[in-house]
Amino acid sequence: MPSIEYLSSADWVWQAFTIAAALFQVARNTSQRTLSDRISAIGATYVRFLFGLPVAILWLALLFPVFGWHMANPGAFLMWCLIGGVVQILGNGCLLLAMRERSFMLAVAYSKTEAIQAALLAIVLLGEAIRMGVGVALIIATAGVMMITLGRGTLREVGLAGALKSRGALWGLLCGALFGYGATLYRAAALASEATPFIAAAYTLITVLLIQSVILTIYLVVRAPQTFAGIRSSVRLCLFSGAMGGLASLCWFTAMALHTIADVRALGLTEMLFSYLASRRLYREGITRAELAGSVLIGGAALALIYVN
């Protein structure tokens, strides 16, 4: 069996967790679309947190015999988890507001600037450096995401001025900033624990999911109690969505505990490519030149990033 030191330092490990996270997230997003129609968007978000919690607990139980127990700085760890959990909820709120705008795809495209914003925040807050090759790959992959997202003619519909001034773009950028900030805080929490990266990621994920589940439970009890009846009537779909969300999150958290934000978020943009390919297979739609070019850019950036590392 490979040593803990090897598993914590080998590039293929964080890369494998990142690719797995992107694939699980596509499955989660697909199920959440259906769930949102049945129980509301906020209810689907709640399911993601609450039903993902058992997956995280099981993962931690499996890790204990191998990696042991360690927590160096619980005060700082809890602070970063609390702030990060709240920030992610706010990011989801901004995404919901962005989805209400006319230029829906434009808003989503702007939200995908999360990767670049997370990398910049990691420089400021964590002192992480971005290598030239990683920075170029990150920019290329983000450009590819934008091309795929806007490939259905959104820019022609709203025009360049509208793309820059729309409220959807504003909410999308704010969503990307909050998600990027949250990712940086989660890595800060993992580093504060000073545990083995695998254990640190599990601690962080469980703590964050608990915080988010409690906050949203209180919110739903007060503002939308009917959501719980919807969850009971769609329990199988909720279990699947929660499991996929839990697996995606544990892979994201582990990758970010093992490696720098910029690298993980750049490679993680392959999520958009997987999502795009899945939708093509499910709905048998044609492909535009912009979408094809965007796919090539994302794939090329991902391969370049793996080569650089």
Automatic annotation (TrEMBL):
Residues 16-149 form the EamA domain. The chain crosses the membrane at residues 12-28, 49-71, 77-97, 104-126, 132-150, 170-192, 198-222, 234-255, 290-308. Keywords: Membrane, Transmembrane, Transmembrane helix. InterPro entries: EamA_dom, EmrE-like. The keyword Transmembrane applies. One of its GO terms (cellular component) is membrane. The keyword Protease does not apply. This is DMT family transporter. The lineage of its organism: Bacteria, Pseudomonadati, Pseudomonadota, Alphaproteobacteria, Rhodobacterales.
